[in-house]
Amino acid sequence: MRQIRSWKTFTIFTILGVVLSWLVSCGSGTPTGQNAADDQLDFWTMQLSPQFDDYFKSLFAKFEQENPGVKIRWTDVPWAEMERKILTSVAAKTAPDVVNLNPGFASQLAERGAWMNLDEKIPADVKQQYFPGIWQASILNGQTFGVPWYLTTRVAIYNTDLMKKAGIAKPPTTYAELAQAAKQIKDKTGKYAFFATVVPNDSGEVMESFVQMGVQLVDSQGKAAFNSPQGKAAFQYWVDMYKNGLMPKEVLTEGHRHAIDLYQQGNTAILASGAEFLKTISKNAPSIAKASQSAPQITGDTGKKNVAVMNVAIPKDTDQPDAAVKFALFLTNNENQLAFAKAANVLPSTIQATRDTYFTTAPANATSIDKARIVSAGQLQQAEVLIPVIKNIKSLQQTIYENLQAAMLGQKTVDQALSDAAQTWNSQS
After folding, report:
1. Which of 43, 50, 323, 372 has the smallest number of Cβ neighbours within 10 A?
2. CB-side exposure of 396: number of CA atoms within 13 Å?
3. Degrees to nearest 5, angle at CA 21 with 301 and 151
4. What is the pLDDT of residues 43-99, one digit of tens each?
5. Which of 81, 10, 36, 9 is nearest to 321 (CA)?
6. Greater confidence, 429 or 406?
7. What sign results for the dihedral spanned by CA atoms 347, 350, 352, 353?
8. Residue 243 — φ and ψ, nearest 5°?
9. Over 80: is that where the pLDDT of 390 sits?
10. Which residues of 102-138 are buried (b: 16+ CB within 10 A; e: fewer)?
11. Domain 11-152+308-384 falls in which CATH fold?
């Protein structure tokens, strides 16, 4: 996601976020007040034009040729207008037949019964073409409300020069190893290993780390479940990192943008981000880019990996349900996902498409971006949307982060911070 502002150089990457986090809220829809003709499918995307006009024109022509009489009307909506437009169009029953969203925002409308139940339309053998953990991201209350489209997973971009100066042979793969590396890097170089913000309304990376460490955030009724031994261990981990001087003090006040700045300045050894962000580093800090390599994202004992997902949903009020489902599956099939992934430097959500050599084998003249892409794609088997699809998820992050900050500053014990966070969340949920 949440989440890199690199639209100027790479449109898709920002959609999914700087650390590719769940923080992004987006939507799409058809122009309010316009009703599709009987033979016309309205399809909305988010800020993909004009970068990918040629791809979509070719895609639409092929679908229309295979489905005589059906015409695709494509509307690309600016990022800032997404949420308002889709909410308005759904309420007015003028929504598009197929709409590009992300699971987090789409689930809010799924709670209101806005989307078609795709379990009634898509056979099991078709669902099995997609990564199970990715498909699960578009399920709410046991019903599928969306089809996965394109993805990114975080990678650990690391500065080989700083690692070498610290005497570290390979980058950390777990949070336990990260803590050890952070101390060694600080002692040997005076630099920090990484930056992870706990600003309430910014990146969800730290809250995702809780899940990777084995914390259940909420129970089946949506009540706090993080006030647990695992939750205490996760709180204690970040409190200790801060109090031991192994994290910059700005984690309390600066967002993820600061993590990027610090890495590009050579002041941190590791940046959690998307593989494509190496292009931005190359432009802004050539010497840092030259020393940068990529490794799998850091995780906990669970081995879980973060993924940012974009999907497509179909309003239940569409007057062309069968054609809409056919187009959604055409858009996201192996062939078309592979083509789009290559054009946009993202990852496909179908298993077969990721087996293409583009995602498995580095070319002879492989760049750091080529290598990072392969690392990123290799994580998909373990990847999932780590933050649960629940109402007011941003409020949950705020509650946890505010109390985590208080514990970092010594204003509360870890036990008190956990208890207060749970009580506050339960009173809201």
Report:
1. 50
2. 26
3. 95
4. 999 999 999 999 999 999 999 999 999 999 999 998 789 889 999 999 999 999 999
5. 36
6. 406
7. negative
8. -65, -25
9. no
10. bbbbbbbbbeeebbbebeebbeeeeeebbbebbbbbb
11. D-Maltodextrin-Binding Protein; domain 2 (3.40.190)
CATH architecture of 154-305+387-428: 3-Layer(aba) Sandwich (3.40)
Q: Is residue 399 a contact partner of residue 235, using CB atoms and an 8 Å limit?
A: no
| Cα-only R_g, the chain | 22
| Type of residue found at 279 | K
Structure-token pair, residue 108: 């809010």
Peptide bond into 50 cis (omega under 30): yes
CB hemisphere CA count around 152 (13 angstroms): 31
pTM of the predicted protein model? 0.83
Helices vs. strands in the chain: H and E counts, helices first = 20, 11
Unique residue bearing structure tokens 């760049």: 367
* Domains of the chain, residue spans: 11-152+308-384, 154-305+387-428
Please, are residues 162 and 181 in contact by the beta-carbon 8 Å criterion? no
Domains 11-152+308-384 and 154-305+387-428 share a fold: yes
Q: Which of 251, 243, 249, 169 is nearest to 209 (CA)?
A: 251
In whole angstroms, what is the distance from residue 128 CA to residue 151 CA? 17
